[in-house]
């Protein structure tokens, strides 16, 4: 860990939180408002307009989780299925393809097969601990890798296998930059985008 970097335990307690600006409360209060007063029409304080969009308590949780997962942003939902539904609707368009772990949660499988496949999305289920099977399943129109077996995938191996199979050239820096799952997904996604234009 580099000097000045906070460890996991410290971030678990402090990341995403700062003392409440109105009271000085060290722990983030539970804000139970649905809407927020604005200085003038279209001039919200601190960017807050409506609690479904932003809420300072939820923001603290999202910031904390983003830090622990070494991601740039966090998004918290009231249920797992709500989160999956939001990702599918927010990230995917008609014609897109999803590679999904074969042991995925049953509710997600039903959502994919019985609902989203009717809206022009295509799903391939694979054993995601198998780098060859995973590489075979990924196509130019693949825009989501869901339920990867994060404990058993060697992401550098996956990136190299994809490179070999597609004739893509990954930059040495790209491969060296893979230190976290987030890095790996970004490098793989960048490689996918270079494989060809996304269908209109
Ligand atoms: C991997 C996984 N995804 C999604 C869900 C669905 O979550 P929820 O019941 O909060 O909608 C679960 C629930 O156990 C789960 O284990």
Molecular structure report:
There is one protein chain. The chain is mostly helical. It has helices at about 10-15, 55-70, 80-90, 105-115, 130-135, 155-165, 170-175, 180-195; strands at about 40, 45, 95-100, 120-125, 140-145. The chain has a 3-stranded parallel sheet, covered by helices on one side. The chain has a two-stranded antiparallel sheet with strand order 1-2. A hairpin with a 2-residue loop joins strand 1 (about 40) and strand 2 (about 45). Helix 1 packs antiparallel against helix 2 (about 55-70), helix 5 (about 130-135) crosses helix 6 and helix 6 (about 155-165) packs parallel to helix 8. The N and C termini lie far apart (about 45 Å). About 15% of the residues are buried. The structure holds pyridoxal-5'-phosphate. The site of pyridoxal-5'-phosphate has 6 residues, from helix 3 and helix 4.
Keywords:
200 residues; mainly alpha; Aspartate Aminotransferase, domain 2; 2 domains; 3-stranded parallel β-sheet; two-stranded antiparallel ribbon; 8 helices; binds pyridoxal-5'-phosphate
Summed up:
It contains eight helices and five strands. The chain has helices at 8-14, 56-68, 80-91, 106-115, 131-137, 155-166, 172-176, 181-195; strands spanning 38-40, 43-44, 97-101, 122-126, 142-146. It has a three-stranded parallel sheet, covered by helices on one side. A two-stranded antiparallel sheet has the order 1-2.
């Amino acid at each position: 860990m580099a000097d000045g970097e906070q460890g996991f335990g410290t971030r678990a307690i402090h990341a995403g939180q700062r003392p409440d600006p109105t009271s000085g409360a060290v722990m983030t209060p539970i804000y139970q408002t649905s809407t927020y007063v604005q200085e003038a029409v279209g001039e919200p304080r601190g960017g807050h307009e409506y609690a479904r969009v932003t809420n300072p308590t939820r923001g603290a949780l999202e910031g904390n989780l983003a830090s622990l997962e070494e991601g740039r942003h966090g998004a918290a939902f009231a249920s797992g299925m709500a989160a999956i539904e939001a990702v599918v609707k927010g990230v995917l368009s008609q014609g897109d393809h999803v590679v999904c772990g074969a042991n995925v949660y049953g509710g997600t499988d039903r959502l994919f097969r019985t609902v989203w496949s009717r809206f022009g999305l295509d799903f391939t289920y694979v054993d995601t601990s198998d780098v060859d099977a995973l590489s075979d399943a990924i196509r130019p129109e693949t825009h989501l890798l869901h339920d990867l077996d994060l404990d058993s995938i060697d992401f550098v191996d996956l990136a190299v296998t994809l490179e070999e199979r597609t004739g893509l050239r990954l930059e040495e820096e790209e491969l060296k930059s893979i230190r976290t799952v987030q890095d790996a997904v970004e490098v793989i996604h960048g490689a996918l985008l270079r494989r060809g234009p996304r269908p209109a």
